[in-house]
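Slide 14.
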Amino acid sequence: MAPPQPKAAAKAPAAPAGGVQKPKVGKPRNYDLGNGIVRFSKTKMFHKKAKYKFIGKKHPKAPKEKKPAVVVKPIGGEKNGGTRRVLLHRRKSFYPTSDKIRTRSHHKTFSKHVRRTRPSLTVGTVCILLAGRHAGKRVVLVGVLPSGLLLVTGPFAFNSCPLRRIPQRYVIGTSTKVDLSDFQLPAHLDDTYFKKNKKSTKRSVKRKEGEDIFATKKEKYVPSEQRKADQKLVDEAVIKAIGKRSDKKILRGYLKAAFGLRSSQYPHRLHF
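Slide 15: predicted structure.
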């Protein structure tokens, strides 16, 4: 009986045509961390992509024609060398010690900026003032001036707050609104109307008159008749709009009461 023949060894897989492929070790530079979050953002990887994008590619620069800066001129005389190199563009003979101050119109551009108001601040919205001598009072927004400031009123009969301008960052807009669609704000109630006229007397004038130059006399502010008439006109329209509401008694008490926070109360958790 013939001895048993050994089994033939399994043949190794044929090598690929391009050569032996080595297994990839490690992770790529940018990979998914899970839940769609990648290690580097697109902006972080932009310069890396741009860096490796042009490796191995040659883009020769187009030759630029160089303009001559020097011209050679013949010179007479035996001991002068025969020629001399002369600059085509002469160098400056005067250099200023300091740079010129350039006037820029960046101070004037602020008046040309587009004013944007929060969508919650519309005409008739009841607002809460957060700064100024009337801080904590609830007022009614009457209009938005071209400068971006809000024009508000108490009305004066409710909480002694007159017509005032205030920036929108110092205001909380509530969900309570008064219908002022029938009211048209007078055209003369603009930023120049509320601008204060500061009259200051110079010290030289006081010396001539023999007064004390250090004596400061504060003039008490007295509203003009025009300001009183405009205040009455605006307040009448607001009070008339409040009177048309079904909850007019509650709204009047709401405008007369001051706003404040108690302990364990936070404004970002409140719904106004």
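Speaker note: The longest strand covers residues 138-144.
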